[in-house]
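Subject: for your reference before the review

Hello V.,

The reviewers asked for a structural picture of the protein, and I figured it would be easier to keep everything in one thread rather than splitting it across files. Below is the amino acid sequence we used in the manuscript, unchanged from the supplementary table.
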Amino acid sequence: MKRISSGLVGAGVLFFAGALAGCGGASGPAASEETQSVPVRVERVQPQSFVEYGEYYGEIRAVREARLVSVTGGRVTEINASVGDTVETGQSLARVDAEQAVSRYETARLSERISREAYEREQRFLEVGNSSPVAVDNAHLAWLDARSRLLDAEKARDGALAISPLDGTVVAKHIDLYDELAPGAPTFTVADTSRMKITVGVPESDMAAIRELGSAEVRLSSIPGRVWTGRPASVSRKRSERSLTFEVEILVDNPDGALLSGSTANVRLALREMPDEVVVPSHVVQTRGTESFVMIANSTTARRVPVTIGPSSDTHTVITSGLEPGNELITEGINQVGDGSTVRIVE
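And here is what came back from the structure prediction:
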């Protein structure tokens, strides 16, 4: 997990001092001093609000997803769907030695009907004294056994015909024509991609803030610039012993199907808001060894100011000590000045 921050609530107020423009035809010491000074731009430091985010990564999966398998195995004799096809509940996507499986199902269905009728008949006979409780129980047991065989036959038939159990999209095809499949081999994966879920691991230190979240930002590296809004749906109450994190499930609507099952998503969750902080553009913070510092303009002189940095984002960094509101922070020309350099503030 990478800790980041973003979302400045109050925009920094830029303050540019007027340029020390030389008059036409200037000469002498004043012109020489201006030539030696370094032109810089500054920003006046002002307190701002800052939102700290946690950044996590997780795999995208459909909320409703089914992996079809060939229960009995056999040869693939027909394929009726490809990846990306839209399918309906009950639709056959392929045939895997289907004739025998269909025949067994029809036989089991007929046997279940006969057993059920026999049980019902014995119940009626018992009511008029022409049967015994033992006979009724035996008939009931025979019917239950026939029902069990029917369920097994139905499962085998559905696998042989690769019948989709839901309306959705084919997200994976695991077979080719004339393949010989072993029992239990997968054939297709079908998913309802209108709503996706992303499961991320969150450290214990972030969990207090996560429990109060109402939304999340979801991004994909394959689709730069686009942001989806998700919502935390569930939070694990037990830490994973493997990753030492708590699982948080994020739900995201996916009406146009842009989010693909199996893709890796970047999830940003707001952890806390920090009001009235000293926030600077990240590029002005320099590091030498273990020391971080910024450059400020004190009138016409640049000063190096050691700082302690806090949370940061791609664009801004919180300064927890070293800078004060009202300081004129050098934002341009930083690499041309050192501590004590003469500077000329320009707009």
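For the response letter, the relevant points are probably these. The longest helix spans residues 98-127. Residues 1-67+193-347 form a domain with the Elongation Factor Tu (Ef-tu); domain 3 fold (CATH 2.40.30.170).

Happy to draft the paragraph if you're swamped.

O.
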